[in-house]
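Need residues for this backbone.
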């Protein structure tokens, strides 16, 4: 009888609540304004011939590499960052190896590592979600073959100084050390310039967040050329769809749209954090396009009360260390004002003002 591997049967499936997402979507850290009008025009110009052909990735990959300041041999376009994580785990992890993650964080690091039969070591974040550098360094061993750090981190919005990330990579020479920079545009700090100088360092980026292209599933995996050569052996030659590849040159040429939106989000992030403080809601400083707020026992009621007002936010109560927490995506000026108006109403409705402590 056919039977799945034990690692597959015991995986905890990640099923995000995507169904019925009607309203202002501030629950998945997507762009609230979408892609550039120039990119949309390019999408509308695509023809049947393009869709009938297998996608050709390499020429666009070279343009992306130039855009981020790397050699094409160091860059692989992927089906979102998810595929990039999967490829790294498939390339470097064997059953019984160890993967190291700091929790709470993005769920797919653990899922893809565990799917390879690796032992996933969870290191709890420190007080106020401070990065536990000493604890991470203390857990690195000979069998440590994969370390993943989201920077900024999801769902906390916290960030790690680049020298600490390089320190981890150098302390774990047998491991593929991934720095996931999915929210780079809202943070501005990167270690991508260390690619090739640190022989086991990898960086991921995405077009899903600031670029407003989550539906096209396109990401970037960057790493040392000699290591990326091995990763490419596992990747499908057709992993990125033809539509995404056709519009990426336009995406790169219209970067002003992204920079303007990211600046708007950073401004509104400051505004929202200030107003959350005025409302007495405990939250953590964020370097991304979202803010984690501790609501307490009323977290589910808080999410539902905003939903009835046409605003979707994400309940993170089940994440390690996030009891009673809700994540709010930060968007455009208009959308932030809508969220603020609803927040004032919900805080009064649920009598939350000043009641939630750290």
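Answer:
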């Amino acid at each position: 009888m056919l039977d799945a591997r034990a690692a597959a049967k015991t995986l905890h499936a990640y099923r995000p609540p995507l169904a019925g997402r009607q309203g202002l979507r501030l629950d998945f850290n997507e762009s609230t304004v979408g892609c550039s009008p120039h990119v949309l025009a390019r999408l509308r110009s695509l023809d049947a011939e393009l869709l009938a052909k297998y996608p050709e990735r390499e020429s666009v990959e070279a343009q992306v590499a130039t855009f981020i300041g790397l050699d094409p041999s160091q860059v692989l376009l992927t089906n979102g960052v998810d595929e990039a994580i999967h490829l790294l785990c498939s390339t470097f992890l064997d059953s019984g190896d160890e993967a190291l993650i700091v929790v709470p964080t993005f769920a797919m690091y653990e899922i893809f590592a565990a799917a390879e039969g690796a032992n996933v070591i969870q290191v709890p974040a420190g007080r106020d979600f401070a990065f536990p550098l000493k604890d991470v360094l203390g857990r690195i061993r000979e069998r440590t073959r994969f370390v993943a750090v989201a920077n900024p981190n999801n769902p906390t919005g916290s960030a790690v100084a680049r020298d600490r990330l390089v320190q981890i990579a150098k302390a774990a020479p047998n491991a593929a050390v991934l720095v996931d920079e999915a929210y780079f545009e809202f943070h501005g700090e990167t270690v991508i310039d260390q690619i090739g100088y640190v022989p086991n360092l990898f960086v991921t980026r995405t077009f899903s967040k600031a670029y407003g292209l989550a539906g096209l599933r396109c990401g970037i995996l960057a790493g040392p050329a000699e290591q990326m050569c091995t990763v490419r052996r596992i990747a499908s030659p057709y992993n990125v769809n033809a539509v995404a590849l056709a519009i990426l040159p336009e995406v790169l040429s219209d970067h002003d749209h992204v920079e303007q939106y990211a600046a708007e989000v950073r401004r509104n992030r400051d505004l929202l954090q200030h107003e959350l403080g005025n409302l007495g809601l405990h939250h953590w400083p964020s370097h991304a396009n979202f803010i984690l707020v501790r609501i307490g026992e009323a977290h589910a009621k808080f999410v539902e009360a905003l939903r009835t007002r046409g605003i979707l936010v994400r309940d993170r109560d089940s994440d390690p260390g996030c009891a009673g927490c809700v994540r709010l995506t930060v968007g455009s000026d208009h959308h932030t004002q809508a969220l603020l108006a609803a927040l004032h109403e919900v805080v009064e409705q649920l009598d939350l003002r000043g009641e939630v402590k750290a």
